[in-house]
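Here we describe the complex-level prediction in full. Unlike the single-chain runs in Section 2.1, the four entities below were treated as one system.
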Amino acid sequence: MSVDEDDAIESLERLGLTSYEGKVFIALHKLGTGTARDVSRVTDVPRSQVYSVTESLEDRGLVEVQQSSPIQYRAVSIDEARSTLRERFEHESERAFDYVETVRDEFGPDQEEEQEDIWMVRGQDRIADRAADLIRRAERSVLFAARSPELVGEDIDTALRERADDGLAVVVFSEDPAVRALYDDHDAIRAIEPATDHRVNDEHTGRALLGDDDILLLSVLGNDEELPGINRETAFWSARTGFAEVLVQLVETTISPGDR
Amino acid sequence: MSVDEDDAIESLERLGLTSYEGKVFIALHKLGTGTARDVSRVTDVPRSQVYSVTESLEDRGLVEVQQSSPIQYRAVSIDEARSTLRERFEHESERAFDYVETVRDEFGPDQEEEQEDIWMVRGQDRIADRAADLIRRAERSVLFAARSPELVGEDIDTALRERADDGLAVVVFSEDPAVRALYDDHDAIRAIEPATDHRVNDEHTGRALLGDDDILLLSVLGNDEELPGINRETAFWSARTGFAEVLVQLVETTISPGDR
DNA sequence: AGTTTGTTAGTAGCGTCATAACAACACCAC
DNA sequence: GTGGTGTTGTTATGACGCTACTAACAAACT
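The structure predicted for the assembly as a whole is:
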């Protein structure tokens, strides 16, 4: 069994199947149709277990059965399987989150109520999501700094362009000409190189976001040497708080966006 | 804990969370932000377990942490949570099904190769999906019979209309005027009432589908009396096989679509 | 007669649930 | 500043349920 097959089985497990169910499903796609014995021959699933495993897959609409002697099984098409699992996923999502919305509305604090808090976020994708969200919440101005184009990403890029189109003052700040070049085509986004005497000599700095005068996110990159190729990024953020106001002022004096 | 909350927790479990994780996630939406103690007070999750449970939720991007004393937690927004879980779902789907496509192409039988087989399908939705798929595979004619509008459904309805628009001969056959009325607005779909002497006096008959002269699906409804309100439907189908040819001829002589 | 099929039973291992213990810390009254 | 009390965060442990895996066997098939 190849590494790819192990990965596929692991993914099917995360989609709600057991290991045996995943193996049987894949085997039936290899076979087209097959008996329990056929399936156990191309997997390490014991023949005696194939019967109940395929019944379970049939219950979930992933396998069809021919009551012949011996019983023949076939997996539904890949598109049908994707669709079936997606429908189940959407159904469970709706059931769960509709309820969560209900309790949030009933018990949760007011939407406008923002606490004097600083929050941690970990992981590059989540930080990008949070940054894009904060960019969208800004009302007057956005300043975004990143040390490389990878740290801009599509979500942030889209959010910056939308806010610029909405009339906000948007500035992108980077030492890297490739980052600045991303915005050559956009009249309303200023892409600025920091003055040399204002650079923070810290290779772990990731991204910085300032919105209005009281929205802020700052991230740092993990130590690449511990896990080469894995740059665990951690950020903190705060919005509409006294902390954010103070920190925005502090950061602004440090990175000083191109007033020269 | 209400039945709704139990359902929501069960759904979150099906989305990959443990029971404790679901309870904590919901609790944090009730609270807005909270400590381990706050969470254990509004759930039955023991306080000592909240720390590792929230760490696990944070790893999955569903909770954010404020390293204060005591530690404060907040759940990400409902939209973020939906999105995060959906992205994970799509990622796992892609990883699994890309591999399945690979092995199907490499090992699976030729697409054109159809075996002399009859297959079982259970459940109303799956039968509807299969019927719609078979309708789409027909090339010259489609005949569809159902005893009530509920047994037509949106997927089948759409498929019938598309095939009629594609130029196939499409006939809908039903004793129920409400079913026939569905197609009053469509010039190319003939909706016909069976002759009285040709009716099958069988209250368990569900749906019948004939495509060309070698595609067939027949379903029966379960016994409503055993589980009131639950009409477990079972169908068999066959396509491009000798079985299908024979069965199509047999059914056609039985239901005889209005040649008189 | 030998092999295969389908069903059932049983055990081991693992992950989750739930309880318990405890050192360290925070808070408060004096 | 100190002592008492409560809280916090961590760690350990056992019970339980589910899945993986093996084994046995009657019936059916070849």
